[in-house]
Amino acid sequence: MSALAALDRPVTAPNTNRLRGFVTAFADLLAATRDEQAILESGRALLSRLIATDDWLPDEFAQPNPDRYQQYLLHCDSRERFSVVSFVWGPGQSTPIHDHSVWGLIGMLRGVEKVESFRRLPSGALVDEGEELLHEGEVDAVSPRIGDIHRVTNGLSDRPSISIHVYGANIGAVERATYALDGTPKTFISGYANSVIPNLWDRSKQS
Ligand SMILES: [Fe+2]
Questions:
Q1: Fewer beta carbons under 10 A from the terminal one: N or C of the chain?
Q2: Where is Fe cation bound in this sequence (predicted)?
Q3: Distance 96 CA to ligand 1 centre (A)
Q4: 165 annotated to bind ligand
């Protein structure tokens, strides 16, 4: 960046170059392989690198809502092969038990999530598979192949937590299901909390 450009740029501007690099690398990965295990392994490394530095998420996509958790679309691949969202939890907020239908990677950017995993028997009943905490810098994976049903709660009772998710589809448009404790499914399409997405493509702000 030139000295003049540096003067024009607020020191607090989010480093969206980092997110652009991530989505470009992810598109390259999906062009190279459609093997889910390979995508999850290499994608985990890419997402770990993205969330290792917390300087790139614009504030608009980090805002909690007092009524419910927020899913902000950050990027959707033009062929809907993958999407990237920020998931923002207010204190104490929780999802229903739900599935995803596609592979997903979940990286913890700020705070802590409690993840309760479930397995569904052929009878439709849910089996509790235990819970774990996801801390800053850690990445979790889901897919129908490796386990896809969970309930997620903000692990912090006094402040928001934020995770960055990558899914193998335009996740806000995917028909999937929530589950009652007895395993009864209910279909839903999540949509997104935002109507505009971050501008990752203004290269005049490239550092
Ligand atoms: Fe989930």
A1: C
A2: 98, 100, 150
A3: 9
A4: no
CA angle 199, 191, 198 (to 5 degrees): 10
Report CA(162)–ligand 1 centroid distance (Å). Answer: 13
Domain limits of the chain? 13-189
The token duo for 139 is 């990445």
Report the predicted TM-score, pTM, of the whole model to 2 decimal places.
Answer: 0.92
Q: 100 labelled as ligand-binding?
A: yes
Quick check: 44 and 141 in contact, CB under 8 A? yes
Look up the CATH architecture of domain 13-189. Answer: Sandwich (2.60)
Going by the DSSP 8-state scheme, the letter that residue 52 receives in this structure is T
pLDDT digits (tens, 9 = 90+) for 41-91: 999 999 999 999 999 999 999 999 999 999 999 999 999 999 999 999 999
User: How close are the terminal C-alpha atoms of the chain, in Å?
Assistant: 5
Neighbours of 65 (CB within 10 A): 13
Distance from the alpha carbon of residue 1 to the mean position of ligand 1, in angstroms: 39
